[in-house]
Fold:
Amino acid sequence: MSSSFTVSSAAARADQGSAPIIAMKDVQKWYGPFHALKNINLEVRRGERIVLCGPSGSGKSTLVRCINQLESVQSGHILVDGHEVVGASARTLDVVRRTVGMVFQQFNLFPHLTVLENCMLAPLKTGKMSKAQARETALRLLERVHIRSQAEKYPAQLSGGQQQRVAIARALCMEPTVMLFDEPTSALDPEMVKEVLDTMIELAGDGVTMICVTHEMGFARAVADRVIFMADGEIVESGPPLTFFDAPRHERTRAFLGQILAHHNATEHAI
Ligand SMILES: Nc1ncnc2c1ncn2[C@@H]1O[C@H](COP(=O)(O)OP(=O)(O)O)[C@@H](O)[C@H]1O
Ligand SMILES: [Mg+2]
Structure:
């Protein structure tokens, strides 16, 4: 597997002048009395690749889960491809969830289904594809993540890295416009991080719109158009990787990057 890819700017890839694929405006989210997202404003263009980082508990998972309404918000607006998801009907949410694919830290594959069945499930259940189409799509995407030969196995027979690549293929089977990744390599043994990052780098090279929560700063430098730093439920700082890493403006960003760097230096790293 190669991690070679061509970098084109988001502006070049983005559909110039078109509405953002995701727009969050003045979003507020509470868990009971706890203010988890504080006035989030974020626009993501088609083809843009965003890395979201920040300390544990800063609201990264909450933010990405609000985009496909795995979490609801108390106020503000979230538009996905022009559809308002805040307070949306079940029908609109179905449309939105087809637009947005998600990959979790804990792969969340169904243990009683084979790799192929895991990938075919959503396209069949939603009536998006015939069985033959779903099978063909699943095999094509398993090939894309270099794991087609494992199609008949069950998740427990695969390594963590292989399972996560299946989870990526499964999400792609719904032909999403946007992919959300929530710390996709955090549960992996170090030797498996690279194969998953390489898969994601390949996807990025294909122009998939991505929001990726990760602390893999090598990945961020390599593929992100924009890195966003969150702390205490707020977006503190955001910018292209070069500026973000080499000239962070906020003290909290600097402190966070210092910690990440110390951690990376202390552990052998994949990318
Ligand atoms: N379901 C929940 N109920 C109550 N508090 C929650 C829930 N989910 C997350 N939180 C709290 O919201 C904050 C942000 O959580 P999260 O979005 O998971 O942060 P991150 O992904 O950055 O680690 C944390 O303080 C967390 O404890
Ligand atoms: Mg999280």
In short: Residues 190-205 form the longest helix (16 residues). The chain has ten helices and ten strands. Residues 160 and 188 are 6 Å apart (CA to CA). Residues 1-7 have pLDDT under 50 and may be disordered.
